[in-house]
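Sequence in, structure out.
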Amino acid sequence: MRLLLGLDRPSAGTVEFGGREVDAAASARDLHWLRRETGIVFQDPYASLDPRMSVGRIIGEPLWALGIEGDRRARVREVLEDVGLEPAMADRFPHEFSGGQRQRIALARAIAHRPRLLVGDEPLSALDVTVRAQILELLVRLRARDGLTLLLVSHDIGVVQNLCDEVVVMKDGRIVEDGPTEKVLMQPQVAYTRRLLASIPAIDPRAASS
């Protein structure tokens, strides 16, 4: 993820996005094109939002930083509605929201500038089960409506199964298996993948019926 977003330099080889090389040594201005094409949602909705900024400023920050033209305030209101929040909430501050609402705010910021690629770094792991299901449904809807490519890092196999068309299994920073999600999850070819899937908790039907 850090290589793709131009935050780290590869020790070998190159990274390309849309046929254009990602140069982590380039200036912030020279990487505007990459920032324009990508958005990211972090794991912790509490730590990823500046408590001193209003929600409207947080969501609108990419629009101003990237010099995107148009009615930016209207776009903030629009994207708040997209993630299931009221436009009037733009004047409030992060501490006034629940964890699930904060993650919706973080998602609104990530898509405000209409990126082609949305990167999620364990975006659901800090949320309770009910809220996680709501955010999952929201991601599915936004991906289908906006044609987003979603790159997700997750240890939650259920989330991967519901959101991802393809999966890459990594161990110690190296790819050990990859392919269509259904095939990898249902017919894993590598011992590490099989152990990973076997570690998922399951309810014993005999215990549930007793």
